[in-house]
Amino acid sequence: MGMSKYHMPSLRVVVKHTWARTKSLLWIVFQAYIIGSAELQALYSVGVLDPINAALNPITVWWLGLPAVAGIFLIFGVVRKELTILMSAVIFQTTNFALIMTPLQLIVLALVSMINIPCIAAIITLVKEYGWKSAITIATVEIGLATTVG
């Protein structure tokens, strides 16, 4: 069987393909992160997230056994997963989470954060690929699964 020869791609082709794949990251994902982070930070600064956090307390405190402010962490985690830990460090003003949470609470927070709905960029991609109805269904199932596993 004949095999075609492998050729080294030209720099122009590599740059063209790299840009085509990176463009969506820059134009969709990056904007979603910046806008989402700014909106959530503004809501947090104004105090709008406090009532939302209070509404989530039956789930976060009673069901999951997390601290009362854990709802805010999980809300920020929707924008970007790493904001869950960053916001907890900002709110508690420490990175030594063993001082504020038990090992079991840290494991539960980690499980819920990882299984919970993906970042906003993934949700936007789901909407583009499958539509709003499917994206909402997927997000709802993931929230339910994260809460159950937690």
Structure write-up:
There is one protein chain. The longest helix is centred in the first third of the chain and has 36 residues, at 11-46. It is built from seven helices and no strands. It has helices at residues 11-46, 49-63, 70-79, 83-92, 103-115, 120-130, 132-149. The chain has one domain. It is an all-alpha fold and 150 residues long.
Number of strands: 0
What best-fitting shape do the alpha-carbon axes yield? elongated
Question: Helix count?
Answer: 7
Report on the biggest sheet: none
Q: What level of helicity do the residues show?
A: over 70%
Gap between N and C termini, in Å?
55 Å
Average pLDDT for all residues? 85
Q: What kind of assembly state do the chains in view correspond to? A: single chain
The poorly predicted ranges are none
Our count of domains comes out at: 1
Structural class: mainly alpha
Q: SSE string, helix = H, strand = E?
A: HHHHHHH
